Amino acid sequence: MHVPDGGDPLAALAATTDLGVVAHPDDLELLLAAPVLACGDDPARSFCGVVVTNGAGSVRPAAMADLDETAFVAVRAAEQVAAADAARMGAVVLLGVPSDDVRSTGSQRRAVVDALAALVAACRPEVVHTHDPADAHRSHVAVATATVSALRGVPTADRPARLIGWEGWRDLGWAPGEHVVRGDLGGRVDDAVALARHHASQLGPKRYDAAVAGRWRANATFAAQREADDADALARGVDLSPLLDDAVDPTAFLADVVRSFADEVVAAVEGWW
């Protein structure tokens, strides 16, 4: 655990209003940029980021091809700490587990869920941010579902008011508008990209910084067909807050959202073919 302002770790956790739980070093800055920047700007809010895996399996730049796994993991951890400092996060926690652990169905995954539940109980955040559970990256889905399991494993009083899954390796074109949360990055794209560029080990082989900036700008323009743009950059998340209710089946909830999209598509073309 790293506390950017050098304060007491337990106090930093207790001050958390927004808890972000992601799979890899760089996901906080690339996918959760809207809440990260919003908290950094607001003295009444504090963002705690949790990175579950060690990022060992990512694509490497040529200059790091000969690093062993331990050395490469250390590089990625140092990049995440530097990004957290620059973003003025309240804290960042690196669980450092192998991706296979969180993607398993056994005791290794249970240990991840338990660790996340302990952090939720220590932070008692108002909002939890994680991955879209329909993401195309299997580790992102594994972390999103582990986050839901962890939240349901703590007493109701310790649960947040909101749970949001932000788009990553799949956009939210599948989610009807009533399920979509907007994260306004207006005027802050350059700041968000600057945070992402602390992850230099990732930006040689893959131009994630340019890709997310393009997506945010496209989201703003394609948000409404017949209205002038009301933002110049938008991140988008799916509202997963219903999953904080133990009576709601997570798989059935997701299936219902996807089904409503299918119904919308069918209704739009029906009668014209």
Can you give a write-up of this model?
This protein is of the alpha/beta class. It has one domain: LmbE-like (Rossmann fold). The protein has helices at residues 9-14, 27-31, 33-41, 69-87, 99-103, 107-123, 138-152, 189-196, 200-203, 208-221, 250-269, and strands at 18-22, 47-53, 91-97, 127-131, 162-166, 180-184, 234-239. The N and C termini lie far apart (58 Å). A seven-stranded mixed sheet has the order 3-2-1-4-5-7-6, with helices on both faces. It has eleven helices and seven strands. Helix 4 links the parallel strand 2 and strand 3. Helices cover 45% and strands 15% of the residues.
Output the keywords.
273 residues, alpha/beta, Rossmann fold, 7-stranded mixed sheet, 11 helices, 7 strands, 15% strand
What's the helix and strand layout?
Blueprint: H1 9-14, E1 18-22, H2 27-31, H3 33-41, E2 47-53, H4 69-87, E3 91-97, H5 99-103, H6 107-123, E4 127-131, H7 138-152, E5 162-166, E6 180-184, H8 189-196, H9 200-203, H10 208-221, E7 234-239, H11 250-269
Parallel strand pairs: 1-2, 1-4, 2-3, 4-5
Antiparallel strand pairs: 5-7, 6-7
Helix pairs in contact: 6-7, 8-10
Summarize the structure.
The chain has 11 helices and 7 strands. The model has no long low-confidence stretch (mean pLDDT 95). It is of the alpha/beta class.
First-residue to last-residue Cα separation:
58 Å
Total tally of structural domains: 1
CATH class: Alpha Beta
Mean pLDDT across every amino acid position: 95
Instruction: Give me the number of helical elements.
Output: 11
> Which strand order do you get reading across the main beta sheet?
3-2-1-4-5-7-6
Helix content: 40-55%
Largest sheet: 7 strands, mixed
Structural class determined from secondary elements: alpha/beta
**What percent of residues are in strands?**
5-15%
Please state the oligomeric state of the protein chains shown: single chain
What fold name stands as the CATH topology? Answer: Rossmann fold
Shape: globular
What is the CATH homology-level superfamily?
LmbE-like
